[in-house]
């Protein structure tokens, strides 16, 4: 018989909340990518030093930091859903039975599935326009700055990928909770 121990860190709690392989993969990836926030802070400090101490600003730091931060926030939605840390009205949720909580989660997943389905369509349209020229050639949308990286296209494709994954997450969670409700 193995002894269970209480989780020692928030990352252990998040790993325990992940209910399927996709969620566990998202939690694992999210924990690794969270270190990129530290990189963004370091690169931003580098820019501040160059700009204000040496009067020699860069042309790449602001757009890079904005892109990385934005990409991490997009992926944060997947992490929140994988670890069941999304917003809910706990006043109601905590006051009902386990069976009612499961039913509330099913309603949440149905609304989430409808939302992510609509966002899939919108993000597909947005990503297609950011990656393809009107005549069909591959042409990545760029920022229009002096540096002009294709970060807008990358972000729009990442949004599409995130909504594909989120839709799959909602389906998996819906199936899990329907099975739980049937057992109850």
UniProtKB/TrEMBL annotation:
GO molecular function, one term: transmembrane transporter activity
Subcellular location per the Swiss-Prot or TrEMBL entry: Cell inner membrane
Topology term for the membrane: Multi-pass membrane protein
Keywords in alphabetical order: Cell inner membrane, Cell membrane, Membrane, Transmembrane, Transmembrane helix, Transport
TM ranges: 33-53, 59-82, 103-124, 153-175
Family: Belongs to the TRAP transporter small permease family.
Complexes and interactors: The complex comprises the extracytoplasmic solute receptor protein and the two transmembrane proteins.
Task performed by this protein: Part of the tripartite ATP-independent periplasmic (TRAP) transport system.
Name the UniProt record assigns to this protein: TRAP transporter small permease protein
């Amino acid at each position: 018989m193995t002894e269970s121990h209480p989780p020692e860190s928030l990352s252990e709690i998040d790993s325990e909340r992940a209910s399927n392989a996709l969620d566990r993969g998202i939690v694992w990836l999210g924990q690794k990518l969270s270190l990129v926030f530290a990189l963004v802070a370091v690169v931003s400090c580098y820019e501040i030093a160059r700009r204000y101490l040496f009067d020699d600003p860069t042309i790449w730091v602001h757009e890079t930091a904005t892109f990385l931060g934005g990409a991490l926030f997009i992926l944060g939605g997947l992490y929140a859903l994988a670890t069941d840390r999304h917003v809910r009205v706990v006043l109601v949720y905590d006051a009902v039975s386990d069976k009612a909580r499961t039913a509330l989660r099913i309603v949440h997943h149905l609304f989430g599935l409808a939302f992510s389905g609509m966002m899939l369509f919108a993000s597909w349209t947005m990503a297609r326009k950011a990656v393809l020229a009107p005549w069909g050639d591959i042409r990545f949308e760029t920022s229009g700055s002096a540096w002009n990286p294709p970060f807008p296209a990358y972000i729009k494709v990442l949004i599409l990928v995130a909504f594909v994954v989120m839709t799959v997450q909602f389906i998996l969670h819906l199936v899990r909770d329907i099975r739980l409700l049937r057992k109850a």
